[in-house]
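Technical note accompanying the year-one report. For the benefit of new consortium partners, we illustrate the data format agreed upon in the data management plan: each record pairs a sequence with a structure-token string. No post-processing was applied to the example shown here.
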Amino acid sequence: MLTQAPRGTRDVLPTESYRWQYLEEKMRSAAALAGYREVRTPVFEHTELFARGVGDTTDIVQKEMYTFQDKGNRSLTLKPEGTAGAARCFLESSLYADALPCKMYYLDAPIFRYEAPQSGRLREHHQFGLECFGAQDATADAELILLAYRLLSDLGVKNLRVKINSIGCPECRPRYNGKLKDFLAARLDGLCEDCRNRYERNPLRALDCKKPNCQALVKDAPSMLDELCDECRTHFEQLQACLRTAQIPYEIDSRIVRGLDYYTKTVFELITVTKEGNLTVCGGGRYDHLVSQLGGPDLPAVGFGMGIERVLMLLDGEGIRIPEPPQYDVFVTYMDAYRIQAFALVEALRSQGIRADMDHCSRSLKAQFKYANKTGAPVSATIGEDEAEHGTVKIKDMRTREERTVPLEDAGQTVMMMRKEAE
């Protein structure tokens, strides 16, 4: 057990970390284009934050949180989602007193949920999330949907579908909840235990149940869209107008409610069709009352979360190859008597910003070349007896076998020239 990762977690190996770095760079660039700046919040928070913010009727709070007592007898929870922590940070640092909206993103943020591990969803996974505090217009919702859509499209993801819905606000949702409860009452005995338990406090969650029997029973349930107040209806119409203007194909799905209680008005998902069926790769929405529920001012907000492991899995499934950069620009080989000269050359090259390395395992010169080939270094630099005597170095293109002997002081310039020629 000491040499086995806990169930539902996995290592990112040195041979694959470049894929994460590539994706993270694309995500950072996408966020920066829209003015979002990075925030980094703790990996655990007070449990009450999630009970109040996410909602104590959700699966996350009831079943999936990693909660523990610390030595001060405080209840802490490894964060099961990113929005509540970002909202807490927003409040604690009084960012609401600055110019609004406040746009922030988090990247490679670990998320913990105790659930059965499955493809693209681990007990510890990582998210790219954006949160926009203080923006009430539907343009902010559309901006986030467009950002996610373009990011995934630019990565090469095909068959993307945008699904949107409005789940109303505290003004119009109670009226809808009443109609939904009337509808569910005649079917209550057939619903799963979770849906029956939520019937009184949050009947909307029955529409989000993934169990086939419940899905069949709520198939003809009334739609929230028919009960929207004027403000929510206008907001939803403006969102659609923005998406049409941006030429983003979308469809309205009145069954999307998302699994978190803090959502109001807009909810959305980006879905792609895979061999295994539909895969939700990004989800989010508006949470206009979360900040006030946590004790702050009444400020609107909107955001989304995107699972990094899921995106990488999706790229693999579609055969999209992320280019692997070479580990080194040059590998320095040497005869044993000139180890110190080789070490000095490596450090001189690194000081010029050139990725360089040498053998640290006392290999023979022949074995060093074999190792250099395994690393994929496009260029080698060799110090032998003649080179050491004359203050030179032999630079070789590992692909064409072309060699040039140059003064040591010209090594860096020559390496980079041959490096470019090898590309």
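Partners are asked to follow this layout when depositing records. The two ends are 44 Å apart (CA to CA).
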